[in-house]
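> run fold FMN dependent NADH:quinone oxidoreductase
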Amino acid sequence: MATLLHIDSSVFPHGASASRSVTDAFRRTWEEQHPQGTVIYRDLSTHPVPHLTADAHLAGFSDPATHTPEQAAAFAARVALIEELEGADAVLIGAPMYNFAIPSTLKAWLDNVMLAGRTFMAEESKIKGIPVTVVASRGGSYAPGTPREDYEYVQNYLRAVLADSLGLELDFIVPELTMAPQNPAMAELVPLYEASRERALEDAETKAKAVAERLAA
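> ok
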């Protein structure tokens, strides 16, 4: 049966996070389609992975036989994350926008799994073509034509990393205006937020079913 790697990075817990509510909807649908399948879950907020260190970085470009004990330990941690990704049939990532970018915990995970010669810049990468769905929630709107269009760094960055560099098959779900219910200055945008939220939840179910059906074929 198929394996889903589910990664959340919101600093807010379940029930208070826009991205988590949508990844939860995707996961529930996935589990309905694959009751005998496997879900590997990583909450990068409560259990962050180490940020990339000099030892971990340099070890990726040198012969393991030459590694210091520190390099060997750091590299082993990277390899564990890479093997987890390589063993997945599909990937689900919650990527809320914080200060115009992704959470640093998610960046740390990406830095660890991006290994030249294995996951990118590699002729026989095991992860190439794996479908990945990213829930890119944001407090405002950065869609084309909006005043903050030029500040959209989350989707652009993740497209460069996940699709262009790692070769994953990337799809986005984008819940917008999530701050509208809490910010009085955005009160008139609450109906748009609610519509965006409902659309995102529907997209999560639709996309989860599509990926599940594709893998079952």
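The CA atoms of residues 55 and 184 lie 48 Å apart.
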